[in-house]
Amino acid sequence: MDTYAVAILSPNSNSSAKLSLQNLRIEQILKRAPATNARDFFSMSLTSLGDAASRKRRAMMSQYSTVNNKIHPWFILPRETEIIMSFGCVRAIISQHSALIFDAHKPTIKQQAIRIAEGVQKRDHFTLHDGQIIYRHESKQKRPHFEIRMVEEIIREVCTMYNRRIRLYEPIVNSLMDRVTNEVFSPSGLHKLVPVKDSLQHFEMNVKGAIHCITDLLSNDEDMLDLLLTEKSAAKSKNQELHIKAHENVELLLEEYGRQLNSILLEIAYLLQRVQSKQDMVALSLDAYRNRMIRMNLYLSMGGISLAFGTAVAGFFGMNVINGMEQTEGIFEAIVLGSTLTGGLFLGACASYVDGSRMQRRTLENLNQIEVLNRALSDMPALDYSFELMLKEDGALTKDMFREKIYASEPESIRDSEIDFLFDLLDYSKDNLIDKEDFRPIAEHSSR
């Protein structure tokens, strides 16, 4: 029977959250979440420990990217006594008294569960009142109930991760733009932009999924009311119904994170537009270069045909001109052999050019670089986790330190070749060091 790694958060009496990691079978999960339907587990697309191990083995054996790049399922579904969430890479079942976060075998999910547990027990926050930002410390009585705090922290975690990721894309896109500019007359330069564009489009689809999830919830008053599990249970015990305005705080919460996600979507659209503009520019440059070559070929053809008239006439009379070599022994064989060898060498050179063996080698090298970049960008959650670890370090990062942080996230498809390629992209000064100042915007978003 398949087992699943689960991070279990339970609120204590002092409003803090206790976090524990357990491996549970599906029947054990159902005992903890009896109101969850069987189809909800299929919707969440959970990964068992056995599936995770076999996927990692396949990734190690394959030279191509095997990371599953399908779009995350996005939904927040209130049930009778639970809330089913699939938001980004976080899958959770939330009740009044506990929360189960799945796929906890991944270091990224473990780290997110720790941050969510820390966020649930925080009482300090900032609010906007009459155009002023005000610091507030909430007492235990005024704090939202556990399930609402869990929903907010999961959404906040995903929004923070996406803000950090868009800052991570910026130096990658800038570095590739510079490389493509230097290789403007090479088709391989144009192809190197394809993996980045694919990765950005995949990221864009996930952000759109998050926005649609929040928008659908905002348009359904009943679902927002059903998120208030504690208040709904208290009203039910008194044979009362919750007033429609009870979900005001939930609505404000969702609207705020919806605005953040829309801002991220605009930044993704800007990066995609930059990549598209660069592709268009390179394509135009290649067209202009190709037209110059065609024009030169036309000029050479015209000049060759013009010279052919004179050489044809000279050929008719040339052998009758006395040049002092008529009596030389073997001159005929030498002329025949030399002209034959020259023609053969010319034919061989043309055949080699048409065959394109050197061009094929260059193409294979470029395709290998493109595949390395594709694998490097196909596991963005692992890169998010790695850069979070890097920002905690003091000083610049060497390649060995960079490799150590990347492998700490246990990536599925990133290997030494991808790490070397990423390090080379992010090493602006080419001094074999990554300066932390280059990622100051990421640090600022991570500290929020």
Quick recap of the structure?
The protein is of the alpha+beta class.
Could you walk me through the main structural features you see in this protein, from its secondary elements to its overall organization?
The strands form two sheets. The protein has a six-stranded antiparallel sheet, sandwiched between helices. It is elongated and about 125 Å long. The protein has 16 helices and eight strands. The model is unreliable at 126-135 (pLDDT under 50). The two termini are 41 Å apart. Helix 7 (193-218) runs antiparallel to helix 10, helix 7 runs parallel beside helix 12 (357-377) and helix 13 (380-391) crosses helix 14. By secondary structure, the protein is an alpha+beta fold. Helices cover 63% and strands 11% of the residues.
How far is the first residue's CA from the last residue's CA? 41 Å
**Percent of residues in beta strands:** 5-15%
What is the overall pLDDT average? 77
Number of contiguous helices: 16
* Main β-sheet description: 6 strands, antiparallel
Poorly predicted segments: 126-135
Major sheet: arrangement of strands: 2-1-6-5-4-3
**Secondary-structure element sequence?**
EEHHHEEEEHEEHHHHHHHHHHHH
Radius of gyration: 32 Å
Q: Assign a percent range to the helix content.
A: 55-70%
